Each structure stands twice: as C-alpha cells, then as structure tokens.
Amino acid sequence: MELISQVLALESTSQVFGKEPIVPFVILLVVILVVPILFERLQLPGLVGLLVSGVVLGPYGWNLLHTESAFRTLLSDIGLVYLMFVAGLEIDIEQFRRTKNQSLGFGSLSFLVPLLVGTLVGRFFDFDWNSSILIGSLFASHTLLAYPILSRLGVVNNEAITVTIGATIFTDIAALLVLAICVAMKAGPFSFGRLMTLVTLLALYSIVVLVGFDWAGKQFFRRSGDEEGNQFLFVLLSVFLATVGAQLIGVEKIVGAFLAGLAVNETVGEGPVKEKVVFVGSVLFIPIFFVNLGLLINVPAFLQSIETLQFTFFIIIGLVASKFIAAFLAKLVYRYNWQETLTMWSLSVPQVGATLGATIMGYRAGLLDSRILTSVIVLMLITSTLGPFITSRVAAGLTNSGIKDQQSVNPAYQKQEENDSSYTIVVPVHNPQTQQYLIEMAALLARESHGRIIPLAIATAFAHMDAPQLDASVQRSHRLLAKATALSKVLGVEAQPLLRIDDAFAQGISRASREQKASLIIMGWGKRTGFKARLFGNVIDNVLWASHCPVAVTRLVESPKKFQRILVPLENLMTPSLQPVKFAQILADANQAQVTILNVCERRTSSSKIAWRRSQLSLLISRLALQNPPEIQIIAHENTAQAILQAARLYDLVVLPFIRNRTVPGGLAISDVTTQLAKQLTCSIVMLGEPQRTQDVVVQTEVTSSTTAAMSEGIV
C-alpha cells in the first residue's frame, strides 16, 4: 500500500525506487530473464545483453538502478564469487595431469609473455609499477569459451588442445596470485619482509584449502550418500568459507573462491550436485553481477576520451599479439604444426572469468580507474567473440593424437557384453499410454540379443508400510506389470516383472537395475518442463547420473516395429560415440532396416578433409564387426542442427548421444546440438546416455543436463 500511495502521490520514479528495494530487484529479474533471450535471437551473446542493460538502466542511462544499493551489491559480490568458483570448478584437472609438463610449459609462456607486454602498456600510459603489473596480470589468464566448438569437431584429445586446457589452471592461479600481491602492496609501503610474509600466508592458505577442503569434501560426500541437498549446501559452505579465509589473511575473496573450485573439483565431479551449483549461479547471481558491472560503464566519457580509446586499442593489440607470441614459442619448443599453434592461440585469447574478477577487485582497491575498467570490458567483449570465431575456422580438420587410447574403449564394452550370461533390459513402466511402445522396443532388442525384459514398477515408500497411499500405489503397479507381461508374451519375449518399493523413482530404478545386472534401461519422456525440474533434477536426469549401464531415453511417435530407416548423427569421431551405432544396428537387424551414420562438417571443409573423416568413420565402425555395416553420409553445412533436421525428414527414427555442454564461467554456455534436435525433430527419437564410468577413460562421453532439463519430472 505504501508503494501505491507513493505512486498516486506522483512521487518521482527515482524516489519510489530508492525507498522500495524490491522494485529494482524485480527489474533485475525481468532483465536477466528477457534480455539474454532477445540478444541470442539476434545472434549476439546473452552476456552482451546483460552489460548493455546495466549501461541503459544505470546512472549514465535511465538512472533506474543505482550503484550504491547495498542489496544489489551483495548479490553482485555473490555473483563475482560464483564466477570465480565456477572457473575453478570447470578446470579439467585430469587433462592437466596427463600433459602436466607441456601444460606447465605453455602455461608459463602464456602467463609471462602477456604479463610483460601488459606491464609495458601500463608503464607507457604512465601508471605506477604496481598498477602496471596488475594490468599485465589481466592479460595472463584465459577462458576456454571455444571448448563446445572443439567438442563438436571431435578434436579435444589433440595434444595441443589438451595442453592449452591444462595450461588454464596455471595461468589463472598465477594471475590471481599477482592480483593478491598487488592489492596487498597497495595497502602499505613495499618491503621485502612484508612481501615474504604475504607469500608465506598465501602458500599456507592455499594448502589448507586445496588439501583440507578436498579431504573434507570426499569424506562428507562418502558419508552423505544420495543426499544431494546436503551435498549442495556443503559446496556452497566451502566456497564462502574459502572467501572469508582469504579476506582474513588480507587476500581478495575471488582468490579463495577460485581455490575452492579447484579443491572440490574432483569431489563434485560431473554429477548432479555440480549441475545444481552451476545452475543456481548462472540463473541468478552471475547475471546480476554482469548487470551491475554494466552500471559502472560510462559510455559517453569513454567515447569522448582519446586517451581511453588509445589505451583500449593498445591493450587489445597487446593481448592478441602476446598470446600469439606465447603460442608461437610453444610451437618451437613442442614442434606443433601451424594449425595446432593457431588453435592454441585462439583458445587462449578470450578473457572473461579471472580477468573480470581481477579487474573488479583492482578497481575497488583503487589500483585501476574507471577508464581501465571500461577498456577491460571492451577487451572482454572483443576477445570472447574473436577467439571462438578463429577456433571454429582453424580447428576443423585437426586429428586426435590420443587415437590409440581410444581404441581400448569399445573392446571393454564388448568384453562386458560377452561375459554377461543374458542381455537384460529394464523397462520402468509408469504411463499406460506409452508403455506399449517401450515394451515393443525392448522386445525387439531382447529378441535380437537373445536377452530378457524386466518390466519395473516403482511404488513410492511411506513412513508406514500400511499407509493407504502405498496400497493404492502397489495395486496400480501390479496392473501395469500385468499389462507389460502380457504384451511381452504376445511379442514372444521372456519377461520377469519386478515391483520395488523405494523412497524415490530414480533411486529405485538405478538400484533395481544394478541388482538385476541390467545391460540397458529404456525410459520415455514427456513434454513438461519447469524450474523445479531444472533446479532439483527430474527422474530421467537422476537415473542418467546414477546408472551403471547405458540408458535409452525415448520419444516414440509410432510402433518401433515400423522403423525401416534409422539415422545416427555423430557430432565427433570419438570412439564412445559409437555406442548409439551399436544400439541402432541391433534395432535395425530386428526390423531388417537400414542405418545411416551422418557426420556434419564445416561448409568450407575441403574434399580431402571430408575423405579423411569418411575413412576415420569407416575405421571406427569396422571395429564393431557388424554383419550389416551402416551407410556413411557426410554433409558440409554451416549449421549442424539444421543439417541433421533436414536429413531426418526421410527417417523413421533418430538415435542421438547425450553430449553435455561444457559450461563456461558465467553460465552463458553455447547450446549443444542434441538439445536443439530434441526440441525440433518430429520423428521418433532415442537418446542414449552412457554410464559414468566412461569418464575414467581418455575419451569422455558426458550426459547433457540441458537436454534432460527438457524432459518431464516423472517417468512417462
């Protein structure tokens, strides 16, 4: 009522907003919901939209949001901490270990050369030594924005790319340590003793966080079992404890957040807890940070200052040139070819996570002024666009140097299948309307593989086993199982119905499948989506994370017995991706159908590279020893999703692998092709998710949370 009375009294908008903090928060929510969508439809990054919104709504625009708001500053600080934590969480430590010598070598070059160039640029514009060194450290780090492009091209196991990914851990840590020392030196006169004290405290603090938090995290996760809520809270507590600890020793909080990300990296792994942590930050806190960052940008002053424009030009040229020099030196030392060298250079150019965090901290400490802040934001926008663009052009056609390690993946699957006495397919039944097609598909696969079907019904447990709700659920489950058993008998396949009472659907499915030594789980999905499903995960999402065997998630628009043409798009040439090929071929043999393998390459790909891709696909498929080898089709197209959609019009079924987005710091990840296809394909779809154990091998097959977020909250 107070707000309405203020408006009716014709108080100015700024006065109303100043007295009612909820109104600016509502504006922020509208901005982070609407603006990124609009900018992405204009083929622009959502990040740009958030920054532009901050400029327009800030004190140098419409003045609807004020920089002195304590509530928004708190949310923005949490967003900054989250940004740095995710940067540490997303670093692939396993990649670093495999090529630690080369990664340290290239990381040192990629840190020292830009540090030197940036320091010289700062001195050229009359900044003192402390500020100049900090400017140099801003050049040193890099963000792997182009990783989704490399994953789509299937070249992430090329040694040069693996080395660049591993070098990220060195450059980011070194840049943040320089920031910590520069900010600490700002607080008082420089002395060697003070510097050594700070370095000693930093070293001890880093050991406590990296070793202590890692040990505590593994102990807590082991004892907490499947309690994802408690695990989620533990991760959040670790982040903010590390930031408080950093401030206690006089170090910027983003250093603690980054180290916390590294500390819990292996503990969290690629599980659902990580997805929830990243989701919360990318949906709310990190976008608010970028909007708040836009409030600090004074565009008129930036455009009117010749010196600021000159400084921006020099730091852009200095960064791009210094990263190229570092990549060229790595070429000379490690004998990479030019294509690998240019790819390393383009990967190390984008500046987002650590660079933005260090800039904000330097600005708040008084080491950097508003001109540098605006210039670094311009640098971020240009490099985050330029780097992925160059990567998409130069990385096409690279070969995986880890090919001999890949060859050992499929034999492991084949050996497992040979050792199984029976090929067992578990079919969770819940929705009578979709149950028939699921059983039919399972029957085709089981008959061809001489296996069996286990229709599985889950009755949700209650505190008392005599609860009326449990009785009703058990009776319903019995009816579903009876129908599934009768249908299996008609199809001529052995069925062993199983009723399980469990606390939750997902855990019940995963545990029963493990107990029955299932070879495959076949599930369906609906069309409902929601915030709850994304935040807390749905049944399918949780089964995919926990399952010990492949999971086929289906959307069947007709009987599987009618499938005559099956399409299997492969986004890359990594061996584990051939599991969908094996699945499709078994189904095709049951129906005397034809399987087509489709690979989409860049439109500019030469005929010789297309021939190379065809030969690689033929070589990989030949290892499956299929009686009826599939047809191979390669299309040159600028849009992978559109090429697959056009080809899929002639097919009855499309079999897709789950591919996880590699979330970039900031949560503004590029949508993966599988997600787009799941939304637009009109024919039947099977999405095949691999068990988590494949992450232990060189080639990782990952499950996309963004895809499973598009599925229903329950089994259908």
From TrEMBL:
Which InterPro entries does the record cross-reference, listed alphabetically? Cation/H_exchanger_TM (IPR006153), Na+/solute_symporter_sf (IPR038770), UspA (IPR006016)
Q: Tell me what topology the record assigns in the membrane.
A: Multi-pass membrane protein
Can you give the residue ranges of the UspA domain? 424-555, 563-687
Task: State the UniProt keywords alphabetically.
Answer: Antiport, Ion transport, Membrane, Transmembrane, Transmembrane helix, Transport
TM stretches of this protein:
22-39, 46-65, 71-91, 103-125, 131-150, 162-186, 192-213, 233-259, 279-299, 311-330, 342-360, 372-390
Location(s) in or outside the cell: Membrane
Q: Which domain of life is it from?
A: Bacteria
Residue ranges constituting the Cation/H+ exchanger transmembrane domain according to the UniProt record: 30-394
**Similarity comment: family membership:** Belongs to the monovalent cation:proton antiporter 2 (CPA2) transporter (TC 2.A.37) family.
The cross-references to PANTHER family, in alphabetical order and at most eight, read:
NA(+)_H(+) ANTIPORTER NHAS5, NAPA-TYPE SODIUM/HYDROGEN ANTIPORTER
Q: Mind telling me what this protein is named? A: Sodium:proton antiporter
UniProt organism field:
Brasilonema bromeliae SPC951
**UniProt lineage:** Bacteria, Bacillati, Cyanobacteriota, Cyanophyceae, Nostocales
